[in-house]
Amino acid sequence: MSKRMGKQTIKFDSPPSIIATASTVGPKEGKGPLASYFDVVLHDPLWGEDSWEKAESKIVRKTIERVIEKAHLTPEDINYIFAGDLLNQLTASTFGIRGLNIPFFGLFGACSTMSESMSLGAMVIDGGFADYVVAEASSHFCGSEKQFRFPLELGTQRPLTASWTVTGSGAVVLAKNGTGPYITHVTTGKIVDLGIKDPNNMGAAMAPAAADTIITHFQDTGRSPEDYDLIITGDLGSIGKELTLELVRRSNYDIEKVFSDCGIEIFDPVTQDTHAGGSGCGCSAVTFAGYLYKEMQNNKWNRILFIPTGALMSPGSTQQGESIPGIAHAVVIDNKWA
Amino acid sequence: MDYIKAFIVGGIICVIGQLLIDKTKLMSGRILVLFVTLGAALHGIGLYEPIVKFAGAGATVPLPGFGYALAKGAIEEVEKVGLRGAFTGGLKATAAGITAAIVFAYLSALIFNPKAKE
Amino acid sequence: MDQMQDMKKEYEQLVEKVSPKSNTVRDCARAFWVGGLICTIGELITNIIKSFGYNQDEASMLTTITLVFLGILLTGLDIYDSIGKYAGAGSIVPITGFANSMVSPAIEFKKEGYVFGVGARMFTIAGPVIVYGVIASVIVGIIHYFI
């Protein structure tokens, strides 16, 4: 029997369980509303390393080591790591994972990487190819400013539509056997580009992709917003969230009652001056690994649709006058499966 | 009195820059290029010198003043040595500023490290 | 194809409607007083230097060097970025901003070494200013020669 539903969705026969999560965040995230949910809060964004890039690699390695430990496993038990970050050629992930001796698939989905890694990890387990998989994603504010925007000491003003890249890594261990929460469905996004060229308004660039994946998910599965306790995107921010709500409404789905965004949850816009909200691969990764997972275990929500969103651009592409395409991958996480 | 003139004119030039930042999608780098080129061009047609005479540092400190200094240097050198002065005059006049920037920036890099933003 | 164009246009309008705009009046007021102040400080420095017997041109040049030094020092001390956040063009447009744009990438890319890091990256933002300024001055000079 085919596991495919509709155009872009897969339903798993034996949904993998998320048996452990781990998160490490930087100082700013540690001062935000979700601070108590994270395993490790750094005081020094360099974590004693020489450069932002090396610091991010250390954060990746320590988080993955911790999540394997929390799952009561050893690195030898893990069949695959699926991981990615924002740096050129995924150097944060590669140098972090280098010493672990675990087969590794490096991924680039920009800020949608966490759901990309969870999707692929779940598919590999349900397909019978693995017993245990680690899915992880990370970002670092300083490293990403250096690569994509401006040096830290430059005197510039950030517009109100800009977002703040999260410093952090979130990791999960997926297992063939477990008692949930389960990944039951995956809706893989396609690239959607409605012509936004402003790299200072990522929310606007990604909202069409988020809306497209949400609508496709409902159409593929026959479900509706009422079937979910929470529908949460990765880093649309306050502006992207409003745009997505409107776009989804135009297809006759009203998700407002259950809709939120990790970028909005992770920072307090008033006291932390983060303008549109948090962003980066780490944003959705740490919010899931810390906040969403723990509250699902507390039964605050029993079924969530988790949709990290990515802006697929490079500094060069915007300079060449290209617009910013977006992509959003959705995973359904359910405390039970029928 | 000099100080007030410098304050007002310098402030106005910065406000023009701020309007460009807020109202257009121009990035700050392009705005700076626009200003320096304008300063040179305005001096070429004789319009910047009066502003300098009036406002002193209010006209020379902002970036159009850098363009003005480059253009002024080129013109003065052309009057002294002819056509090749167009090529030597600009950098000759602004050598102090550019060299200071290079030297101090390099020394800073030796001493300071970037600090993460909170 | 046309449908796509229409969708893009419609979406652009929606984005315009939803995106918050910065407070232009407040931004301009801040740019005005900080930029004005930096220029006034420049004027003060020039007058002080002139009182030591230097003429206008020499004093101007030394003022430039002093302001460049101050901009770089404030950047190294992690202060200029805060000024920039507050004052916007008021800190970008004066020559101190030019200095800040050279030293900030120099410090940032130190990790990539002193040749390809510090040496090359120093000009990422300031380079275009020098290139276009010099080209403009050459054109002005040539035109002046022929007139």
UniProtKB/TrEMBL annotation, chain B:
<protein>
    <submittedName>
        <fullName>Stage V sporulation protein AE</fullName>
    </submittedName>
</protein>
<feature type="transmembrane region" description="Helical">
    <location>
        <begin position="29"/>
        <end position="48"/>
    </location>
</feature>
<dbReference type="InterPro" id="IPR005562">
    <property type="entry name" value="SpoVA"/>
</dbReference>
<feature type="transmembrane region" description="Helical">
    <location>
        <begin position="6"/>
        <end position="22"/>
    </location>
</feature>
<feature type="transmembrane region" description="Helical">
    <location>
        <begin position="93"/>
        <end position="112"/>
    </location>
</feature>
<keyword id="KW-1133">Transmembrane helix</keyword>
<dbReference type="InterPro" id="IPR014204">
    <property type="entry name" value="Spore_V_AE"/>
</dbReference>
<keyword id="KW-0472">Membrane</keyword>
<dbReference type="Pfam" id="PF03862">
    <property type="entry name" value="SpoVAC_SpoVAEB"/>
</dbReference>
<keyword id="KW-0812">Transmembrane</keyword>
